[in-house]
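Sequence, C-alpha coordinates quoted for completeness.
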Amino acid sequence: MIVVVPNDRRMRIEVGYGLEPTLTDGMAGQIIQTVMTPRFKNGDYDGGIMDGARAVIDVLEGGELPDRAGGDRSTTRSNDGFFEGPDLSLRERILIGAFIFGIIGLFTVIGILTPTGGWFLYFFLIPFWAMFPIVVVGSGGAFICLVIYLIGFPVAKLFVRNSKWYKKAKKDIRKKGRASIGGFRFTSGGSGGSWSSGSSSFSGGGGSSGGGGASGSW
Protein backbone atom coordinates (compact mmCIF):
# COMPACT_ATOMS: atom_id res chain seq x y z
CA MET A 1 0.00 0.00 0.00
CA ILE A 2 1.38 3.40 -1.02
CA VAL A 3 0.26 6.29 1.19
CA VAL A 4 0.90 9.93 0.24
CA VAL A 5 0.04 12.97 2.41
CA PRO A 6 0.69 16.01 0.18
CA ASN A 7 0.02 18.66 2.86
CA ASP A 8 2.63 17.14 5.19
CA ARG A 9 4.93 16.26 2.28
CA ARG A 10 5.13 12.70 3.56
CA MET A 11 4.78 9.27 1.96
CA ARG A 12 5.05 5.67 2.95
CA ILE A 13 5.12 2.24 1.34
CA GLU A 14 3.44 -0.19 3.73
CA VAL A 15 4.38 -3.82 3.22
CA GLY A 16 2.25 -6.69 4.51
CA TYR A 17 3.59 -9.72 6.38
CA GLY A 18 3.60 -12.06 3.38
CA LEU A 19 5.54 -9.67 1.14
CA GLU A 20 8.31 -8.68 3.54
CA PRO A 21 10.82 -11.29 2.28
CA THR A 22 10.31 -10.09 -1.30
CA LEU A 23 9.84 -6.35 -0.77
CA THR A 24 12.11 -5.53 2.17
CA ASP A 25 12.10 -2.27 4.11
CA GLY A 26 15.34 -1.28 2.40
CA MET A 27 13.83 -1.86 -1.03
CA ALA A 28 10.75 0.18 -0.13
CA GLY A 29 12.98 3.00 1.09
CA GLN A 30 15.03 2.89 -2.11
CA ILE A 31 11.88 3.16 -4.23
CA ILE A 32 10.81 6.20 -2.21
CA GLN A 33 14.20 7.90 -2.48
CA THR A 34 15.11 7.13 -6.08
CA VAL A 35 11.75 6.87 -7.84
CA MET A 36 9.07 8.83 -6.03
CA THR A 37 10.91 11.67 -4.26
CA PRO A 38 12.48 13.23 -7.39
CA ARG A 39 9.04 13.33 -9.07
CA PHE A 40 7.36 14.80 -6.00
CA LYS A 41 10.01 17.50 -5.66
CA ASN A 42 9.12 18.61 -9.19
CA GLY A 43 5.41 18.65 -8.33
CA ASP A 44 4.64 15.60 -10.46
CA TYR A 45 2.60 13.64 -7.90
CA ASP A 46 0.76 11.51 -10.44
CA GLY A 47 4.00 10.50 -12.10
CA GLY A 48 5.67 9.78 -8.77
CA ILE A 49 2.85 7.53 -7.64
CA MET A 50 2.69 5.73 -10.99
CA ASP A 51 6.45 5.18 -11.11
CA GLY A 52 6.48 4.07 -7.47
CA ALA A 53 3.68 1.56 -8.03
CA ARG A 54 5.40 0.28 -11.17
CA ALA A 55 8.68 -0.17 -9.25
CA VAL A 56 6.87 -2.11 -6.51
CA ILE A 57 5.23 -4.37 -9.09
CA ASP A 58 8.57 -4.96 -10.81
CA VAL A 59 10.14 -6.07 -7.52
CA LEU A 60 7.22 -8.36 -6.69
CA GLU A 61 7.52 -9.93 -10.14
CA GLY A 62 11.20 -10.64 -9.62
CA GLY A 63 12.63 -7.58 -11.33
CA GLU A 64 15.41 -5.32 -10.09
CA LEU A 65 15.22 -2.00 -8.33
CA PRO A 66 16.26 1.17 -10.14
CA ASP A 67 19.82 2.29 -9.49
CA ARG A 68 20.25 4.27 -6.30
CA ALA A 69 20.52 7.97 -7.02
CA GLY A 70 23.99 8.61 -5.70
CA GLY A 71 23.82 12.39 -5.51
CA ASP A 72 20.22 12.72 -4.33
CA ARG A 73 20.56 10.83 -1.06
CA SER A 74 23.85 12.39 -0.04
CA THR A 75 22.52 15.87 -0.78
CA THR A 76 19.53 15.26 1.46
CA ARG A 77 21.77 14.25 4.33
CA SER A 78 24.22 17.12 3.93
CA ASN A 79 21.37 19.65 3.87
CA ASP A 80 19.98 18.24 7.12
CA GLY A 81 23.11 19.30 8.99
CA PHE A 82 22.63 18.91 12.72
CA PHE A 83 19.42 16.94 12.16
CA GLU A 84 21.10 14.24 10.09
CA GLY A 85 19.32 11.02 10.98
CA PRO A 86 15.92 9.35 10.56
CA ASP A 87 13.60 11.00 8.07
CA LEU A 88 11.19 12.80 10.41
CA SER A 89 9.25 16.02 10.13
CA LEU A 90 9.95 18.86 12.55
CA ARG A 91 6.70 18.15 14.41
CA GLU A 92 7.64 14.49 14.83
CA ARG A 93 11.09 15.44 16.08
CA ILE A 94 9.59 17.77 18.68
CA LEU A 95 7.10 15.18 19.95
CA ILE A 96 9.59 12.32 20.08
CA GLY A 97 12.25 14.60 21.54
CA ALA A 98 9.91 15.75 24.32
CA PHE A 99 9.31 12.11 25.24
CA ILE A 100 12.93 10.97 25.09
CA PHE A 101 14.58 14.00 26.70
CA GLY A 102 11.78 14.27 29.24
CA ILE A 103 12.47 10.77 30.56
CA ILE A 104 16.26 10.69 30.54
CA GLY A 105 16.33 14.34 31.58
CA LEU A 106 14.21 13.56 34.65
CA PHE A 107 16.52 10.75 35.73
CA THR A 108 19.52 12.99 35.09
CA VAL A 109 18.10 15.67 37.39
CA ILE A 110 17.36 13.03 40.03
CA GLY A 111 20.93 11.76 39.75
CA ILE A 112 22.28 15.28 40.25
CA LEU A 113 20.02 16.07 43.21
CA THR A 114 20.15 12.80 45.12
CA PRO A 115 22.84 12.61 47.81
CA THR A 116 23.01 8.81 47.44
CA GLY A 117 23.13 6.76 44.26
CA GLY A 118 23.66 9.78 42.01
CA TRP A 119 26.88 8.51 40.49
CA PHE A 120 25.28 5.17 39.77
CA LEU A 121 22.67 6.98 37.65
CA TYR A 122 25.44 8.94 35.96
CA PHE A 123 27.07 5.80 34.56
CA PHE A 124 23.72 4.06 34.04
CA LEU A 125 22.40 6.86 31.80
CA ILE A 126 25.48 7.12 29.55
CA PRO A 127 24.22 4.58 26.94
CA PHE A 128 20.79 6.24 26.95
CA TRP A 129 22.28 9.67 26.22
CA ALA A 130 24.49 8.07 23.56
CA MET A 131 21.73 6.28 21.63
CA PHE A 132 18.26 7.75 22.21
CA PRO A 133 18.99 11.29 20.88
CA ILE A 134 19.96 9.77 17.50
CA VAL A 135 16.26 9.37 16.73
CA VAL A 136 15.73 13.13 17.08
CA VAL A 137 19.00 14.86 16.18
CA GLY A 138 21.00 12.19 14.34
CA SER A 139 24.41 10.79 15.20
CA GLY A 140 26.16 14.17 15.22
CA GLY A 141 23.61 15.72 17.56
CA ALA A 142 23.63 12.64 19.79
CA PHE A 143 27.40 12.88 20.14
CA ILE A 144 27.10 16.52 21.24
CA CYS A 145 24.37 15.59 23.74
CA LEU A 146 26.57 12.83 25.16
CA VAL A 147 29.57 15.14 25.58
CA ILE A 148 27.41 17.77 27.29
CA TYR A 149 26.03 15.11 29.62
CA LEU A 150 29.43 13.60 30.46
CA ILE A 151 30.78 17.03 31.40
CA GLY A 152 27.63 18.73 32.64
CA PHE A 153 26.52 16.07 35.14
CA PRO A 154 29.72 16.08 37.26
CA VAL A 155 29.90 19.88 37.13
CA ALA A 156 26.28 20.23 38.25
CA LYS A 157 26.81 17.58 40.93
CA LEU A 158 29.81 19.42 42.35
CA PHE A 159 27.87 22.68 42.24
CA VAL A 160 24.80 21.48 44.15
CA ARG A 161 26.75 19.53 46.77
CA ASN A 162 27.81 22.83 48.36
CA SER A 163 24.26 24.14 48.69
CA LYS A 164 22.54 24.18 52.09
CA TRP A 165 19.56 22.02 51.09
CA TYR A 166 21.86 19.35 49.65
CA LYS A 167 23.96 19.22 52.81
CA LYS A 168 20.79 19.06 54.91
CA ALA A 169 19.40 16.22 52.79
CA LYS A 170 22.67 14.33 53.05
CA LYS A 171 22.67 14.81 56.82
CA ASP A 172 19.04 13.63 57.08
CA ILE A 173 19.84 10.48 55.13
CA ARG A 174 22.73 9.68 57.45
CA LYS A 175 20.70 10.25 60.60
CA LYS A 176 17.13 9.35 59.60
CA GLY A 177 17.74 7.19 56.56
CA ARG A 178 15.57 9.42 54.36
CA ALA A 179 15.35 12.94 52.98
CA SER A 180 13.01 15.03 50.84
CA ILE A 181 14.16 17.27 47.98
CA GLY A 182 11.72 19.12 45.74
CA GLY A 183 8.89 16.67 46.29
CA PHE A 184 11.11 13.62 45.84
CA ARG A 185 11.82 11.39 48.80
CA PHE A 186 15.21 9.72 48.95
CA THR A 187 16.01 6.77 51.16
CA SER A 188 19.22 4.93 51.83
CA GLY A 189 19.69 1.22 52.06
CA GLY A 190 22.94 -0.72 52.17
CA SER A 191 25.45 0.83 49.83
CA GLY A 192 22.92 2.33 47.46
CA GLY A 193 19.84 4.48 47.55
CA SER A 194 16.34 4.82 46.18
CA TRP A 195 13.80 7.55 45.48
CA SER A 196 10.08 7.86 45.11
CA SER A 197 7.52 10.52 44.34
CA GLY A 198 3.80 10.31 44.96
CA SER A 199 1.82 7.18 44.34
CA SER A 200 0.60 7.47 40.78
CA SER A 201 0.66 4.71 38.22
CA PHE A 202 -0.54 4.08 34.70
CA SER A 203 -1.31 1.15 32.51
CA GLY A 204 -2.48 0.66 28.99
CA GLY A 205 -3.62 -1.91 26.52
CA GLY A 206 -1.61 -3.41 23.77
CA GLY A 207 -1.74 -3.67 20.04
CA SER A 208 0.26 -4.65 17.03
CA SER A 209 0.64 -3.58 13.47
CA GLY A 210 1.64 -5.89 10.69
CA GLY A 211 4.40 -5.94 8.16
CA GLY A 212 7.19 -3.51 7.46
CA GLY A 213 7.78 -0.73 5.02
CA ALA A 214 9.50 2.64 4.75
CA SER A 215 8.64 6.33 5.01
CA GLY A 216 9.94 9.41 3.29
CA SER A 217 9.40 13.10 2.63
CA TRP A 218 10.19 15.62 -0.06
Q: What stands out?
A: The beta strands are 2-5, 10-15, 178-181, 184-189, 192-196, 212-217. The first strand starts at residue 2 and ends at 5. Residues 69 and 75 are 10 Å apart (CA to CA).
